[in-house]
Amino acid sequence: MNSSEQLLPNWLKRSAENIPTRPAISCEGRTLTFAQLDQQATLLAFQLATLGVHAGSRIAVLTGSGLPYVVCVHALMRIEAILVPLNLRLTTEEQSWLVQDVNASLLIHDAQNAERAHALTTSLATLPHVAIGLDTTTTTVTLSGIAPTEVALSEQITLDATQSIMYTSGTTGKPKGVVITYGMQWWNAIGSALNLGHNPDDCWLACMPLFHIGGLSILMKNVIYGIHISLHEKFDAEAVNTAIREERVTIISVVAIMLQRMLAALDKEQGIPGQGRYPAALRCVLLGGGPAPQPLLEDCARRDIPVMQSYGLTESCSQAATLSPADALRKLGSAGRPLMPVQLRIINDDTLAAPGEPGTICLKGPTITSSYDHRPDATAATIHDGWLSTGDIGYLDADGYLYVLDRRSDLIISGGENIYPAEIEAVLLAHHAVVEAGVCGRDEPTWGQIPIAFVHLTADSTVTEQELLAHAARHLARFKLPQHIYSVAQLPRNSSGKLLRRELHTLLPENR
Amino acid sequence: MNSSEQLLPNWLKRSAENIPTRPAISCEGRTLTFAQLDQQATLLAFQLATLGVHAGSRIAVLTGSGLPYVVCVHALMRIEAILVPLNLRLTTEEQSWLVQDVNASLLIHDAQNAERAHALTTSLATLPHVAIGLDTTTTTVTLSGIAPTEVALSEQITLDATQSIMYTSGTTGKPKGVVITYGMQWWNAIGSALNLGHNPDDCWLACMPLFHIGGLSILMKNVIYGIHISLHEKFDAEAVNTAIREERVTIISVVAIMLQRMLAALDKEQGIPGQGRYPAALRCVLLGGGPAPQPLLEDCARRDIPVMQSYGLTESCSQAATLSPADALRKLGSAGRPLMPVQLRIINDDTLAAPGEPGTICLKGPTITSSYDHRPDATAATIHDGWLSTGDIGYLDADGYLYVLDRRSDLIISGGENIYPAEIEAVLLAHHAVVEAGVCGRDEPTWGQIPIAFVHLTADSTVTEQELLAHAARHLARFKLPQHIYSVAQLPRNSSGKLLRRELHTLLPENR
User: Domains of chain B, with CATH numbers?
Assistant: First the structure.
């Protein structure tokens, strides 16, 4: 393709032309057709234009995962502005850092998050903000009190252009903005369709937060495929089970803990412990967010629930590898083969690992980010010649199927949320009594993992665990708070002084 | 996408890794799995390397539409050489012109076409040639007597690179080579999958010549989708019907005359005139190659045969617009909406036509060619700012559905083959007795259209119609021969002397 060929018609607009009257998205009993979704996105884009939003503007969005967010995503696309979704679970301090780091020019929030938005704009007096709301009578999403300005909207999508900036942390402590282009979204949707199959009558259930890539990518598939999305603002196992039954859901994206709760609810609903089933129309349970417990996969296989484990990260625009329906049972426990546009290799000691040999998972292709926003250092450290070094550990079997052993050595995944030890350590180190800090995950049956911390205190310190936890709570989102903070004499380090987080667990009272 | 992102894994290689043991292609009772097809393409590429074929080499292929051709297509892809398929229906003179025009460095032919190849290489003494054959005992395709050279093969596909050059004529008389890139094939396959749906268990029946884009594009879908292809070297209605029944065919590509014959055979087989049916597994009869007769579409609707009419041309890498399954009945007679990556507009008098207003069909997008090979004049005349002016006439209804009224005014479509009047006229004008010549199509129930010619002879001429037909037969493929050549006093021309082909029919004896 030459440069002029990197254009596609705006996906929502094309779907609105192709199938105007078909349901695009349903949420809390309200449904928008493709024509309605397109009309609302257009109107909202005109309102945003009144506020000075233009191509390339960076817009922070602090809303729940409902229709206002969805319409906002598409309005920003029509105006070629850049979506920066804020994780609702972050503290005001964390959100404030992020909004400044990305240099957002506007904050959009909904009524439920008015208080958080107020706190945020109090700390950032120069940040304009506007409330978005759903008129429940007309099912219309608008910015309250803003007149529309009829500007020329983009009818096309430039695959090279930035669609969103999604923050993720890493080993360096502070979050980094992953640049997500339209092309990444497009190729991810196409790679997924080639693997899972595509049926214009599919209905995809989304119950994951839309401020993460896993949720956002479903909104893109919505308009690229022209399929119906059943959107759940909050995950509720019973409600999800009901929707699967009543809305003819064919695909659902979940993390392991959601699936476990769904099965428990299913057994309760059907009164047959361990044997609850879903309708045959449910053809794919797409499982993401970290390695899945083998017993869960086996339980689903027994129940004929078509679970397709996947592997992906923000940098790969959600799935990079996914088990295919044909291999679901034969390769239980594997995250499958890389999607068609993706190249995957395992690197151990700077060389290609042999089959079965674990190493770092590296990814390349048009679904893989090419940079972190204004972080050439982080980009250079992570991406070489288009190859993204994920830091995650896995191996390929003799047939080339991926088995993920460990997310990047220091990453803690708790209920599908990524927690980065370095970030918690930085907060603990900011306390005057803390000399050294180390954080790792501890396995836990409900959440998968929870963070625990180890600190080496100053000799004269009298600080208590409770006081340190209270300090941490002032700076960190709840889900990142360590379950315990252990005081130890010293932390394990290698010869060059690098903290060995993998050895922290040997310091646990029960392991000493 | 930046330049490094225009790479995809080689499609066949990836399918061979993903689904090595699944059937890739069946032909005449022989089946190759994806692993076998990949192995054979690799071996054949090594043999081609021995013959000096390298990236960018232009290779003329003169074979039937069987396994040798298929393996050859993939071998050329692995070596990044350019496929130039020769239409078997052309005369040696026509083929010779084309091979010279494209500057082919090698001719590959099969045993059935040895005589034609001999004639061709006799006229082109400097053109090396080699025979390709299928060892029916081992189902192995090889070049006879050529040892392999193990060269490094491309593991990737550059979407920008040229995959093939497909000749098509036009208003200028001499054929032009349409540059078909890998990207055009990829985007066409994706656009089609988004429209028709994609099921990894699909089986696509190919019974059209593989030297045309309609056939070749099925071979690309074969490896991009990883689906099974049932390949028929020659179209035989009974054999196709049997395959549909016995091989669980889900999609078939046909032109109108094939479908008519299939229905006739079906009625004979099932003994119920006008009521023969296909199994429900056949989910899509993709109808191309020119406007379809309305009675045929209505007949199929009555029989619940899911016909999806399409519109496309070589320059658009087969389908550019196709009716979707959901609209098949509602919009009977329409060629549907443009595929997702394609933009389509109707231009009348240099302005955008209103709904219902006929005009020239123009196309843009990554499935549309960006040039004719070494013909900057033809490219500039046809493509402006990425928009291809097809010369075909159609309109969009109020819902944006395409109705094709006429292929480019001078194009005759006979049994799915394009015939260009200017080419026949040039041959007639080469006869010493012919002063003026004009060719147009006459409707004919079996072939759709057949060419007829009108000549204005020199005053002293005594040449007969039979003599002129014999002259034409020496230069033109059989299917292009006029059914009749009428001698007339003068041809209709506009004020600037341009031949008005549309008015030729008024000269017919019955219309005078």
Answer: 3-158 (3.40.50.12780), 203-406 (3.40.50.12780), 412-511 (3.30.300.30)
- Cβ A485 vs Cβ A491: under 8 Å: no
Contact yes or no for A260/A296 (Cβ under 8 A): yes
**Alpha carbon of A55: minimum distance to chain B alpha carbons (Å):** 18
Chain B nearest CA to A165, separation (Å): 16
Q: Scanning the structure block, which residue is given the tokens 């050895």?
A: A503
Residues with Cβ < 8 Å from A227, sequence gap 6 or more?
A199, A200, A201, A202, A203, A204, A221
Nearest by CB to B324, from A2, A8, A200: name it. Answer: A200
Complex ipTM value: 0.85
For residue B404, the distance in angstroms to the closest alpha carbon of chain A comes to 18
Q: Which two tokens stand for residue A454?
A: 């180890």
Closest CA to A449 of A458, A457, A459, A439: A439
- Comparing CB atoms, the residue among A159, A197, A386 nearest residue B199 is A197
Which residues make Cβ contacts (< 8 Å) with residue A389, sequence separation at least 6?
Answer: A347, A360, A362, A382, A383
Whole-angstrom distance, CA of residue B285 vs CA of residue B457: 47
Q: Nearest to residue A120, comparing CAs of A133, A106, A132? A: A106
Distance CA(A333)–CA(B203), nearest Å, equals 29
Q: What is the DSSP track for B376-431?
A: HHHHHHHEETTEEEEEEEEEE-TT--EEEEESSTT-EEETTEEE-HHHHHHHHHTS
B293 touches A at CB < 8 Å: no
Along chain A (512 residues), what's the average pLDDT of each consecutive run of 10 residues?
67 96 96 98 98 97 97 98 94 92 97 95 92 94 94 94 88 80 97 96 96 96 98 96 96 91 93 91 91 83 94 95 86 93 93 93 96 95 94 92 78 83 85 89 86 92 93 91 92 70 83 72
**Using CA atoms, how far apart are residues A228 and A185, in angstroms rounded to an integer?**
18
Read off the tokens for B511.
Answer: 């219309």
